[in-house]
Description:
- By secondary structure, this protein is of the alpha+beta class.
- The chain is about 35% helix and about 25% strand.
- It has 21 helices and 36 strands.
- The longest helix has about 45 residues, at about 300-345.
Amino acid sequence: MADKDEADSAVLAATQNFAVDINNCDREPIHVPGTIQSFGFLIALTADWLVSRVSANSGHHIGLEPAELLGRPIAGIFRQDAVHNIRNRITLLRGPDAVEPIFSLILMEGGRPFDVAVHFSGSLVMIEAEPAAADEMEAAGMVRSMVARLAQTDSMAAFLRDGARQVRAVTGFDRVMVYRFAASGDGEVVAEALRPGVESFLGLHYPASDIPAQARALYVRNIFRIIADVKAQPVPVVPTLDPSGAALDMSLCLLRAVSPIHIEYLVNMGVAASLSISIVVGGRLWGLFACHHYSPRLPSFAQRSAAELFGQIFSMMLESRERTETAEYEGKARQVADRLMAAVAQDHDLLSDAPWLGDIIFDTIPADGVAVYTDGRMSFSGLTPDPAAFSAIVSMLNRNAASQVFSTDNIIGIMPEAVAYADRASGLLAIPLSRKPRDYVVLFRAEQLRSVRWAGKQEKTIEHGPNGPRLTPRKSFEQWSELVKGRAIPFKPAELRVAEALRTALLEVVLRLSDSVDEERQRAHEKQELLIAELNHRVRNILSLIRGLISQTKDSALSVDAFIETLESRVHALARAHDQITADRWAPARLYDLIEVEAGAYLGERRDRVRLTGPNVLLTPGAFTVLALVIHEMLTNAAKYGALSDSGTIAIDWRVDDDGSLLIHWTESGGPAVVAPTRRGFGSTVIDRSIPYDLDGAVQIDYRLAGLEARFCIPSAHVVSVLPDVVGQAHPAPVVAPTPELLGGRVVLLVEDNMIIAMDGEDALRDIGAEVLTAASVGRALEAIALHRVDLAVLDFNLGNESSLPVADMLVERGIPFLFATGYGDGLELPTRFRDIILVKKPYSGATLAGALAPMLADAGVGNV
C-alpha cells in the first residue's frame, strides 16, 4: 500500500554537521544494498564544494568511477555554467526540507542533459540527477489546468475523486487512490481512479501498522516518493560513513531506495512500481495519493514535479474546504449557543429539561438521546440508558472527566457492563455543568452496526523472513471483513469544540454551589438592574432623537401632510440603519448596504438611477447611523429638486485614502439646473453639520448648474476595515404604493398589545382600504376570529408574556392569510411551520404593509392586486 518500515538505520540516521576529511575519501567503500535507486545518481558536497559522497552508479551516468570522483572539486567535474546554475538554485532553498529542481541541465561537456534536484542534508548539499526526458512538458500550465478543474467540484466526495483522476492523468499509473488516515491511525481508501480491468480497492481499510510512525513522520517531511521498479537492484553510496562515523541523512532524496520489507509488501500485491504524494493538512498527515502500476514505470522529472506541485495545492485546497465547512458549522453552533444561553439565563430549570435541551443541541451536535443529571435528579429524552445505568455513567464521569468535555465512541471499552444497552447508547459526549456537585448534560449515540472491509487480516505474526526475525507483511490481500459492534459514530473535533464552548458558557450562568446561591442571585439582580438602566438610557436617547426630529421637522414643514410624510421617512431611515447594524449584534456594517437599502426603499423602481462604486467598507455603528440620515436627506433633496426629480442620475463613488479616511463623492447629472437654496431647513442642516459635529469629519456641497456635487470625509476612526470586493446583493423589491384600492374594504385583524402602535397600525391599514379589527391579546384575537369575518391578519409576534402563535394556528386552519410584525428585526426566528410567513419589521407604514401584503395577496388570489 505505501512505504513500510522505511527507516533503514544505515540511511535514515540523523546526519551530524561535519566537514569531510579529503584524505580519507579514497578509503575502501562499504557497499550497503538498498541505498539508492539505479535510475539516477547522487553527489553530496561539503560547504567548500568538494565531492564527499557519490552513488556507486554515478560512473555509469557520467563516465567516471566513484573513486575518481571522491575528493575532487565539483568545478573539476561539471561544466562552469552547470556549477553556476546549481549555485543559484541553492540560494533559493528556504527551510531545512526545501528541494529545488533544475530541468535539462548539461552537466559535462559533450554530455546529455540531466534533470537535477538540490537540497540540504545537515551541512551538506545534495545533488540528485537523472537523464532528462526527450519531451518535457510544461508543468506549471498543466497544474494550473488541473487546479481549475478541481476548484469546480461541488462536494468533498467529488473533490477527492477528481483529485485521484488528475494525479492518474499526469502520472499514468494504473491505480491512484486517495488514502485517508483516521484518528486511530487506521486508513481507508476514500476515492480512486483506475485503468479498466484493474481491481478496485475503494472502501478498503488498512491497519495503522501498515505505515509505521517513522514512515508517517517522513511522509510529512518528504511529500513525494517513487519506486520505479520494485525489482531494480539498488546501489550504494560510498563511502557509507564519514570519518566521524555518521551516516548520510537521505530523508529528502528522490532517488533513495526503500526498505526490503516494503519491497516485499509491494511484491505480495503484484505491484511493480509505486508513487505516493503526501496530503498534509494543518501540519499533520491527512492522507496520501497512493499510486500503483503493474509494470515498471518512471514518469519524467517534469511529470513528477507537476504531480508533487498538484499534491501541495490539493492539500491547501482541502484545508481551505475543511476550514470553510468548520467555520460555517461553528457559526451556526454559536447562534444555537446564544439562544440556549439567553433562555437558560431567564429560566435555570431549563437545564434539567432533557427534551428541551435535545431540541436545542441536536441541531449542532447530532445524537440519538440526551440525559441530564442535576442535583441528583435525572431527565431523559430519546435513546438513553435506564436511570440505574446512567447513574453508573455519572460515577464514571466523576472519576475520569476532570471537569472537561469527555467523549467516547465505545462505552463498553471503559464500562464493560454497558453491553446491556449498547443498542441504545454506544457512544457519549458529556458536558459538565458545574464542579461541585458534578452535574452533566450527556449526549448519547446509538450503536452503529457496520461491516469494515480490511485489506487482509489485521493481525501480523513474528516470522523469520529474508531479513531475520521481524514483522512480515501480509501474504494475501484478499478482502477480510469484520463486523464492528458496540461502537457509535465518533464525535468530530468540531463538535467537541462546540461542546467545550457550551460548557464554558453554561458554567457562567449555572447557580449550583449551595454556599453561593444567594450571592449569585444578588449578582443576577444587579445585572438585571444594570440592563434596565442601560435600556432606560438607550430608550431616553431614542426618545430624545425622535423629539428632535419632530421639533426640527415641524419648523421646516410647509403643511401637516408634508410634516407627517417627512417625519415618517426620517424615522424609517433610522429604523433601516438600525436593522442593518443590529443584524450582526451591533457589529460594523457595510456602506454599500446602507446606500443600496436606502435607495431601494426610497426610490423603488427608480433605484437603478443611482450608481454605486467603491470598495467593501465597514463602518462603526455610530458612523453608520449618522451617515444613514445624511444619505436619506441627500436622496430626498435629489428627488424633490435635483437629478431624480427629472430624468437624471446620481453617481456615488467612494474610496479610502492613505490615512484610512473614507472619502465619498456624490455627483448628480441630467436633472434640472441647480441653484443654491434660499432657506435652510432641517434636512440641509443634517447634511452640512452631522458629519462634522458627530464624526469630526468634513462636508463640501457645490451647487453646480449641471448638477449638485458633494464630498464627505469620514475619519479613519469610524472606518473598521476594507474587505475584498464582493458581488452586490439583490436590489430590494419595488415599493408598492399604499392606495385605498389595495385591500378594497376587506376586514383585517390587527393583533397588537401596545395601544400607540395599534393606533398607528390601524391608520396604516385604513390607508390601504382595510376595515380593521384590533385585539390586544391572544384571547381577544381568537374571539374576534370566531365572531367576525376576517379576510387578512397582521399579528404582532410578541404579546407581553405570550406570543401570537395560537392565533396563527387558527388562521392556518381557516385558510386566512396573515403576516407577522416584530420589533426584534432579523433576530426573530419563526417556528419551522411558519418559516414561509412574511415578517414585517417595526416601525411600519402604509407603504411597508402594502409592499408586504401585495405579493401575499397575489399568491393567495385575494384582493385587487
